[in-house]
Design brief:
By secondary structure, this protein is mostly helical. About 80% of the residues lie in helices and about 0% in strands. The chain has a single domain, classed as Chromosomal Replication Initiator Protein Dnaa, Chain: A (Orthogonal Bundle), CATH 1.10.1750.10. The protein is elongated and about 50 Å long.
Length: about 150
Amino acid sequence: MIYSENDLHKAFALFEQGFDFYDVINHFKKDNLSIIDKNKIELIVDAVLAHYNLCEKSFISKGRHRHLVNARGIFYYLSRNLTKSSTKFIGARVNRDHATVLNGYNMIKDLLHFNIDNIKGDIDCVTKIFNEYMDAKNEKKNELIRNHAQ
């Protein structure tokens, strides 16, 4: 397989971010976005935790309080809309199965339709936090690539 100079810079940046050899190789073999989607899902989790002021332990717990259910639902909703990840992969991040992810996703869609619990405002806030995280991560990645290219 032939790699361009841009691919080599991308591989170097992925190594700098802490990915191991097999993740980087699989990224180029499959030519997919699994590494990027995995990072996006982690950033979505961080954004949800920051917005709802939760710890990760309570977020992945079996608790069914309304704020926890809404937080997980927003995570499902944004993960399905912002990544190409499967519901099984999304659910595995929070110790849930694919059916729970689908149910939570549909619940958020219904809440959005009727704007119950100001869910649209929560989604907008979480999306804003997520975009700030993505911008910061992209700036750091571009800086690493520029420094390596020099």
